[in-house]
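Table S5 (text form). Sequence records supplied for joint modeling of the two-component complex.
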Amino acid sequence: MDIVVTKPLLARSPRVSSRWNRILRQFTRNRLAVAGTIILVFLGVIAVFGPFLVADPRAQDVPNRFERPSWEHWFGTDELGRDILARTVNGARISLASALAAVAVALTIGTTIGLIAGYLEGKAGLWLMALIDLLLAIPAILLAITLAARLGPGLTSAMIAAGLVGLPAYARLARGAALQVKRQEFVTAAQVTGLTRAGIIRTHIFPNILTPVIIQATIGVGNAILLVSALGYLGVGAQPPTPEWGRMLSDAQKFILTEPYIAIFPGVAIALTVIGFNLAGDGLRDAFDPVVKR
Amino acid sequence: MARYMLQRILIAIPVLIGVSIVVFLMLHSAGGDPAQQILGPRADAESVARLQEEMGLNRPLAVQYADFAKGAIQGDLGRSYRSNATVTSEVLTRFPATIELALAAMLIGTTIGLIAGIIAGVRRDSFFDYSSTLGALIGISIPTFWLGMILIIVFGVELRWLPISGRVNPRLGADPSAPFLVINSALHGNWTVFRDSLEHLILPALTLAGWPAAIVARMTRAAMIETMDREYIRTARAKGLTESLVVKRHALRNAFIPVVTVVGLELGGLLGGAVVTETVFSWPGVGKLAADAILARDYQVVQGVVLLLAAIFIVLNLLVDLIYSWLDPRIRYA
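The corresponding structure-token record, covering 628 residues in total, follows.
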């Protein structure tokens, strides 16, 4: 009970607010991190509002196929005469949503497993982590394509596969942090007051591991976008006519000898998005942990 | 050292068994019946049942696994549903092509990464540092398959300098599954095949090298910066050594330790990345084999490739551990 009362006090204490100010200052002073954030905000706006502003990404216009970029079709048209701008913009929504979903899955399950393993320690904890380490012993992309193929090719399978591949990172992070935090005095104090294990994990250990998990998640979204698009490219992810970036590139490769421009814009979109997440993630890490910063 | 090595090897065995169980379960239990998937949705119940019987799928999972494990130990990984060849032979014929590609990529990636990382770390905040940091950021952010497509467009389609698919021109009569085609043809003085296979290797190797080059550059830069701030470097400078001697004699060796880990681990990652790169360039290796097998639902082959690559990954991790402990004796006693 004690601790629940101190929580709001903590939030208002000047020391805490100055810590957040310092972190925010660190972050905004880092030009690359700001650039990354601007890219992400831009992409977010496109993902949310873009699809309302562009043409139907599935509307075919075969007589006007393979049109070079023009005023009418800014990015040109593909092999079925579909507007590549419309498909790329709609792809932003699909890629961001599926990557966020994959990270949400990885983060929730991974953090829970890691917290439990860290808090329990002993044999149960070791077994849990051994299971997690097994996932790391298989090359990520191979694990993901096998799983996606077995679940049946599709965007949902790709999301689940990308989530599973990302999961060990959160589990390890959460376990390490839980092991560290649980030895601190306030956790012992909470145990003495009679708080249950689940209660201690929730109210004391979880808030303390939030920072590294958020940083990992930011970079994780970028990696999930790369993985989901690779699965789309290999044919086990999003299926046509879904305008998913990886799938679009796989279709574009069939015409690469004669119409190479179709392969440009979806690729730029993937690269830009992942750069945005990597820059923002690096910036967050430096801001939260100035010691590591170089 | 012997004790530590033994310990590490003993840990690797249960990991390998665990991986085989995970892969087995993933392909045999998740998401429906393999027999149904192989025959397609329109197959009637009777043929599905017959195939199940034939594949032994109606036995308990534990029995199926035991059977599979027994075969795997003897090198029998079952047969491909498509070609009816043994999985072991399918994998072994394509494996040399993947090794050649992965080693070429590692060589290119590590060389570029080390040079860029060392210069960037020594000349911190210079123009070179910024450009190589930006290059590394792009390297870890662009999808491998798109990098491959861009290289195809630039060097294959626009400039027409290099071939864009396969391992060697079929008209030359060379075996596309031969081990180390490039080096071998040079050793035998077959310069036409040498030149052709080298040209075929360049674009896929560059594609696969992008990611490790970026990682090694980042890692080396960070390690160099950390080392250059150390006191013994200051001492070396105070002794009056020239800056290049300080870097060569004192900094490089210590900065090298974390880089070894990354190189070792990335080589494992490369084997996975090969699936994508080999698909882009129709490179006849295990990656392309796995990708094709997955699309054709040839699960025995998929299982074989995943197990093989996971086993190599585990062995590589083990080697990295051992090299690491040899470079830095403190690790053994930790």
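Note: The radius of gyration of chain B is 24 Å.
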